[in-house]
Design goal:
Blueprint: H1 3-26, H2 35-45, H3 51-61, H4 66-81, H5 86-99, H6 101-108, H7 118-130, H8 135-139, H9 142-162, H10 171-180, H11 185-201, H12 207-225, H13 228-237, H14 243-262, H15 266-280, H16 288-313, H17 319-345, H18 352-367, H19 370-399, E1 406-409, H20 434-443, E2 447-450
Parallel strand pairs: 1-2
Length: 453
């Protein structure tokens, strides 16, 4: 690509990077919540300040999501050992996990077009963040990010690794596959679909390598699924597995998703699709065998999340699962749209200035779109209130460390937006409630109780 065209690509990417930077800056208002406290206090008090030991303990006692457990505990460990305010390390962990979506998407675009495009990656990541229904659970809460968002970045890195030439498996790909199996079961089913389709379509030269990758992932997934903690958790929850309920809940979730999250953002999605098509136009298209596995896996993400989740947990799809479902499907649609642009316009004469100017305009519209401005408004209006109240509670509980008795804490101001952007579940008036217990253990006080208004 000519230097002038690279420059226009970079300029076209700028407004999409603004969306990413807005998401990263919001992390400065984020604080540990709910499960975060549980992980951090266990890692410190029961796992000997060892994130690996904490992941192993959870594997035995609660969940087979070993990668998510480890990375969450790792952030907590850094926050406890570094001579910095804990919230700074927490915010940095959020920022890094979200920011890594950009390079992961960039390397994955090589399965769509034969020359990588930073602009394509920026558009896809910005679209992923802007249209994310529950941004708290996907971008501003560490446990949610590590289970769902960070795992998506690993999936995109695997997509890139499958595209690497060579008949021998690489250690990097094996490590990515082992790690990816330990984030969540629904993402693993999507990755498994991708690997199976890729292997079926790539049998001529790299069949042995692909089978090794597929077997590696299958073994890692089996290790995650047979974790003793999964059976221990199911014994406590004892959900009923009803296919009728799963189908009904899945259909209801699909209708709700279309009405609440897709239809209101129709203009945003239209701009993203046209922008992706224009960025692909004139580029060398990759072989259809490379984009097809990702397309099928993205489509499979819908029934995997909509039906499998309510079947396994006997409840409608949670917000963080909705994020992953819609996010994977959206990324897949944008990948395919980019490939169609490249395939249809590979030999066309491209007016780079016009197409990149249009992509830039669509990016500016995304910055000023409803989802982005609602995000900005919530951070601007509620963020300072939330931060000051969080810091006040931190100071109160930190100064009460080792003091006897129940510590009464004030309730946080209600967040005016829905879904909430910063304020998740909180302690209750019951000191024995699980969140109260984890918060009390983290701050090393006897008990915590929400004060009556």
């Amino acid at each position: 690509m000519k230097p002038a065209n690279r420059l226009m690509d970079a300029l076209a990417a700028l407004p999409y990077l603004v969306v990413l930077l807005l998401a990263l800056s919001a992390a400065t208002f984020a604080f540990p919540q709910t499960d975060d406290f549980c992980t951090f206090e266990r890692m410190r008090d029961l796992s000997g300040m060892n994130p690996f030991q904490e992941a192993l303990n959870l594997y035995v006692s609660w969940t087979g999501r070993y990668s998510a457990s480890f990375f969450t505990a790792l952030v907590g460990w850094l926050g406890l050992v570094l001579p910095l305010p804990f919230q700074w390390t927490y915010a940095a962990g959020l920022m890094l996990a979200v920011a890594l979506m950009l390079p992961a998407t960039y390397v994955a675009t090589l399965t769509v077009v034969r020359t990588g495009s930073f602009a394509i990656a920026a558009l896809i990541v910005a679209g992923y963040l802007a249209t994310m229904p529950w941004k708290l659970e996907g971008a501003l809460w560490l446990t949610g990010i590590m289970v769902y968002t960070f795992g998506t970045a690993f999936f995109l890195a695997i997509v890139s690794e499958m595209n690497v030439d060579g008949n021998r498996p690489t250690l990097r790909a094996v490590l990515l596959l082992v790690a990816a199996a330990g984030f969540n079961e629904f993402l693993s089913l999507v990755i498994g679909t991708f690997l199976v389709v890729w292997t079926l379509l790539d049998t001529r030269t790299r069949l042995a390598r692909n089978l090794i990758y597929l077997a590696t992932f299958a073994i890692a997934l089996l290790v995650a699924l047979v974790a003793p903690g999964n059976f221990a958790r199911n014994a406590v929850a004892s959900p009923d597995h009803s296919i009728i309920f799963a189908l009904e809940a899945g259909w209801l979730s699909l209708v709700t998703m279309l009405q609440s999250d897709v239809a209101p953002n129709g203009i945003v999605w239209g701009g993203l699709l046209v922008g992706a098509f224009l960025l692909g136009w004139g580029r060398p298209a990759a072989n259809w065998r490379k984009v097809t596995p990702f397309a099928i896996a993205a489509i499979a993400a819908l029934p995997i999340h909509l039906v499998a989740y309510p079947y396994l947990l006997n409840e409608p799809m949670a917000g963080r699962v909705l994020n992953q479902c819609l996010g994977l499907f959206g990324i897949g649609v944008l990948f395919v749209t980019t490939w169609l642009g490249a395939f249809l316009g590979e030999r066309a004469k491209v007016d780079y200035l016009t197409t990149r100017a249009l992509v830039f305009v669509f990016g500016v519209l995304l910055v000023f779109s409803g989802p982005t401005q609602q995000f900005v408004g919530a951070i601007r209006d509620y963020g300072p209130i939330w931060k000051s109240e969080q810091l006040a509670r931190y100071e109160q509980l930190d100064s009460a460390r080792d003091l006897p008795g129940v510590q009464l804490v004030a309730a946080f101001t209600a967040e005016p937006t829905w879904p909430p952007l910063l304020r998740g579940s909180d302690v209750s008036a019951d000191p024995e409630f699980w969140i109260n217990t984890c918060v009390a253990n983290f701050f090393e006080v006897d008990a915590v109780k929400l004060a009556e208004r």
